[in-house]
Structures are given as C-alpha cells and as structure tokens.
Amino acid sequence: MAWGISPKSRLATTLLAFFLGVFGAHRFYIGKTVTAIVMLLLGIAGLATILATLWPLNTEWFFVGVSFIAVVGIWAFVDFIFAVIGRMKDDESRLIQKWGLVVPAGRTSPKSRLSTTLLAFFLGIFGAHRFYIGKTITAIVMLLLGIVGLATLLATLWPLNIEWLFLGASFITAVGIWAFVDFIFAVSGSMKDSEGRFIQKWGLVVPAGDISPKSRLDTSLLAFFLGAFGAHRFYIGKSNTATVMFLLGIVGLATLGLAAILQLNVEWFFVGVSFIIAAGIWAFIDFILAVSGSMKDSEGRFIQKWWLVVPASEREYYIKYAITTLRVIAWIILVVGLIGSLVWGTTMGGTEGGVQIVIGVIGSFLAWLALLAARELLKLFMDVKGNTINTAERLTKEPN
C-alpha cells in the first residue's frame, strides 16, 4: 500500500519526540491530538508524583511516578525511532519523510530564521522571539510568566522558602518548555510569523535600497561590549533609545558602587542589579539582531554589510576617528577597571579581597595595552599606506 507524503517537517517531529516526547509535543505537532493528550497526562502525572515524593521522600509513590515516566518515555522513544527512519505518520496517515517543511508558494516570511532561533534559545522565557515575529499577545504572556517566575525565585532565596521556590520554578519550567518548543520550530523552519507565513530563510529578506551603510561588525561589537550603555544605538543614530540605555546602565552601575562603598543594605544592591539586568537584556537582544542582520539604523534601513560602506575619499578620516576612539576607550576601561577592582576588593576584605584587586588591576592593564596596541597597528597601517602612495606617485613622475 502506498501512502502520501506529509508536508510536516521530519526534523521538527524528531526533535520534539526526543526532547519533549514524554509530554506528547511531537504528536500535538503532527495532529494526533488524542494520543498526545494521553502522553501529556502520563508525563505530568509521573513528574508531579516524583516531585511531590521528594520532600519528604516517599519510596512507594516515587516508584509510581517513575513507572509513569518509564511508560511514556518508552512510547516517546519508539516514536523518535519511527520519526528518524521516516516511518512516522501524521493525522491523515501520510508518511513524514521530508526533513524540511513543505511550504506552499508565497507563504515564506521575510523574517530571519537565525534571529528567531537565537532569540528563542537565549531569551525565549521572556518572549523575545515572539515580539520579533509580531506575535505580541503570546509574547506578553511569555514575558509575564518569565518575570513572575524569576521574581518569585529571587524573592524566595532571601530567606529560603521551599513552597514559593517551587511556585517560581513552575512558572519558569512552563515558559521554558514553551520557549524550547518554539526554538525547535524555529530551527526546523516550522515557525510562523504574525501573518501565518513560515520563517524559512536564515538571512533576512531585505528589499532593494533598504541596506544601511553602517557596519554590522561595529554594531555587533558595540552591542556586545558596551550595549548596556547604549553605545551601539548612538552609533546607528538612535539617540533617544541610546540615552535611555545609557541612563539605565549608569544608574545601575552607580547604585551598585554606592551600595558597596557606603555598605548599604541588600535592597539597594538588588535595585542596581535590576537596572543592569534590564539594560543588559535589551543590549543582548540588539546584539542578536545585529549579528543576524536584522538591526535597523535611524532611517529604518537594515544593517547588513559587515564592513562600513565608506567612500574612498573619506576612509582616512574614519581611520583617524577609529584611532582616537580606541585611545579614549582604552583609558576609560583602565580607569573604570582600576576603580571597580579597588571598590570590589575593599568590600570583600581580607586576602580574597586583595587577590581580587590584583586580578582586576592586571586585567585592566592588559585590556588597556591591547586597545593601545590595536591603535598603534592602525597608525602603522596609515603610515605604510601613505608611504606607498607617495612612492607610487614619485615613481610615476620620474622619467625613465
């Protein structure tokens, strides 16, 4: 008997069966809802029973929970084997053979598959990938679950409260599984944007004339190293949001410094950390968008080219600007590193504090030397280039 070929992705089915098979995720994906619900109930019942018997330990009920997990785990592993060899069928009894999703014509999204995948993997519990692809409502739900779960976890650590700890962990686990499912869908090209189009292309589909002259490499590096202070957004011309990030970073850093120097209470320390985390998450999202070519400049053009698009007549000016910038950054890192090391080491006190001061001072000097060395290399490049041009001009003017 010949079966039809399913449009479902064999890769997505395989990954879901392997990582989340005990909850029936792969069967939900291929449309087998009844058996998927059975697997989900078995998995939840088994996991809940195991967790409930750990505090305090109850051996009999623990083995009941393990039995549920073993049964659904074997079932999921059999499905995984069938998916790998291409013998898994969807709800219409069609064989899931193709590793990639079969996408109808005109149903491909212009969004970047790489951006969606990275955002889902690193910041999925806060719904970052869903904000990116335009699914705002579900993104807000994920964001709230992630924030509530994380806040509950942090609040129960001082002092420790087991009941609230498990509540926070439950929120994080729920949104984490949701984010991981989205990650698998994104990797396999099965994720849809807000208009129901499949996100298939790893690179962003950019209309002609919408490419920025700004450097993708510069934007990525600034976002990674100085993103908490909005350096990358100043560079691409988004001054308003850059100022907000700068204030968040400075206020957070200043609060941490004052809390350490004046020996303020733990609450002030967490206030400073909260500002830094907020600016840091924002900067990391921008870094992912920059690396994947999905970042826009102040004029709405996509920053796609890794190198700065500069007319030949202006290149020397930009190299001189880069030399000056490297020198300024080198001294900033040295001063901030020395002050930070002294503050941190003094706060810790004792031998350990002294070691931290030494490590911080050495690290600051090494970073300072590395940046100054890069500056000298650029200067050398300019000198060599200038001498080469002068020599070429002189040789062309000399008579044979």
Reported for the largest beta sheet, the result is: none
Number of domains: 4
* SSE topology string: HHHHHHHHHHHHHH
How many E-type strands? Answer: 0
Beta-strand percentage?
under 5%
Shape: flat
Number of helices: 14
- Mean pLDDT, nearest integer? 85
Q: Unreliable stretches, pLDDT < 50, 5 or more residues?
A: none
Structure classification? mainly alpha
Helical proportion, percent range: 55-70%
Radius of gyration: 27 Å
What's the end-to-end separation, in Å? 86 Å
Could you describe the 3D structure shown?
- The chain is mainly alpha-helical and 400 residues long.
- The chain has 14 helices and no strands.
- It has 4 domains: 1-101, no CATH class; 110-205, no CATH class; 207-308, no CATH class; 310-395.
- The N and C termini lie far apart (86 Å).
Offer a few descriptive terms.
400 residues; mainly alpha; 4 domains
The gist of it:
This protein is mostly helical and 400 residues long.
